[in-house]
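Internal tracking record. Fields below are filled automatically when a chain is submitted to the structure queue. Please do not edit lines marked as system-generated. If the sequence contains nonstandard residues, flag them in the REMARKS field before resubmitting.
Queue: standard
Priority: normal
Entity type: single polypeptide chain
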Amino acid sequence: MTDVTLYGQWICPYSVRVSFALAERGIVHDVVDVPPTAVRPAGFVVPDEFVAHSPLGEIPMVRVDGEYRADSLPILEWLEERVDAPPLLPSDPSTRLRVLELMTLIDRRVFPPMIGVYYGTHVDRIAESADALATALAELGAGLDGSPWLAGTGPTLAEATLVPFYVRLDGLRRLGFDRDLDPRIADHRLRVGHLAGGRAVAWSSSRTEEFVTRFERYRAIRRSTTGGPEPR
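SYSTEM-GENERATED OUTPUT FOLLOWS
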């Protein structure tokens, strides 16, 4: 039996991608809780093997039978090759290429403004991030016309790449993402949430509350130390 271990934490969107893929593919695995650097408690002891094998010291990292990979998108692709389980990367060349393109697009177009919303401390910058996020989601939604999934006939690594946004949407709403959600994306979110991977990574209300509280506290500290909101 393949020995798989994920080093990460639920609050990290990049770890959520890998958790979703492992659960959706039915891969039994252990989890070593390693908080992201930004929220790592003082005195937290990072496992030696994590230090040795994660070049940037950031989660997620995965170990499979003594081999290691770091960085969420390379991990997702590597697990497809390394672990024998139902795939999330189609074998058809054109669909496979489309999934890989979507993974890159989501990483570049959805994640930066999503992060910009909850790290924002100025209302105008939060609004700019919210606009950019809504635009990127609408573009993704256009690809869902006539199809329940982002590529192909079932969930793929494209869903795994996007799912962290779905997981934290309720928290994002409270932190400034007040734009209307493209209805095709809203429907897609519900479908993803019903998958085994979606259920595995879904946040409880207490996790959403912790997420919101952390960033409200971050904003308060940032404003108090700079004497006001972040300048435009």
